[in-house]
């Protein structure tokens, strides 16, 4: 199965999940939703489906959760904490990252396997 066919399948699943999550996400904090939305837009803007683009999209999703966790370990004011809250759970975002890292790893991206393992460790911690 080619990367294109797998991406189409992931895209369909993504759209279904997005429609289920959209009512909750609309009420979420604007900045946190914008990060997620930016990754979604990146999914559909990429015309060349290569292992590297799959990796970059996975990294985009992974970094949302990474930034959220880093900020929670640092003392901060209430305004900063509100900017990091999102109705879209870290678990769901990491599942998106996992899917893209799987695509990249199956097509030979060297760093994707390591990142996939790290993503799965984080998923297990949730």
**Multimeric organization:** single chain
Indicate the percent of residues in helices: over 70%
Structural Rg: 15 Å
What is the molecular shape?
globular
Span from first to last CA?
32 Å
Domain count: the total is 1
How big a fraction of the residues is strand? Answer: under 5%
| Major β-sheet profile | none
> Poorly predicted ranges (pLDDT <50, ≥5 residues)?
none
Give the rounded overall mean pLDDT: 76
Describe this structure as you would to a colleague.
The chain is mainly α and 126 residues long. It has one domain (3-125). It has helices spanning 3-26, 30-45, 51-72, 78-84, 90-106, 110-125. Helix 2 (30-45) packs antiparallel against helix 3 (51-72), helix 3 (51-72) runs antiparallel to helix 5 and helix 5 packs antiparallel against helix 6.
Which features would summarize this protein structure in a list?
126 residues; mainly alpha; 0% strand
Short recap of the structure:
The protein has 126 residues and is an all-alpha fold.
Topology:
Blueprint: H1 3-26, H2 30-45, H3 51-72, H4 78-84, H5 90-106, H6 110-125
Helix pairs in contact: 2-3, 3-5, 5-6
């Amino acid at each position: 199965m080619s990367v294109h066919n797998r991406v189409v399948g992931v895209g369909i699943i993504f759209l279904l999940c997005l429609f289920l999550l959209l009512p909750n996400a609309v009420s979420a904090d604007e900045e946190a939703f914008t990060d997620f939305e930016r990754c979604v837009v990146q999914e559909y803007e990429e015309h060349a489906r290569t292992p590297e683009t799959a990796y970059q999209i996975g990294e985009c999703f992974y970094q949302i959760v990474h930034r959220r966790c880093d900020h929670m370990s640092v003392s901060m004011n209430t305004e900063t904490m509100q900017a990091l809250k999102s109705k879209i759970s870290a678990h769901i975002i990491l599942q998106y990252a996992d899917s893209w890292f799987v695509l990249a790893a199956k097509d030979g991206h060297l760093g994707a396997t390591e990142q996939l393992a790290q993503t799965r460790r984080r998923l297990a911690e949730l």
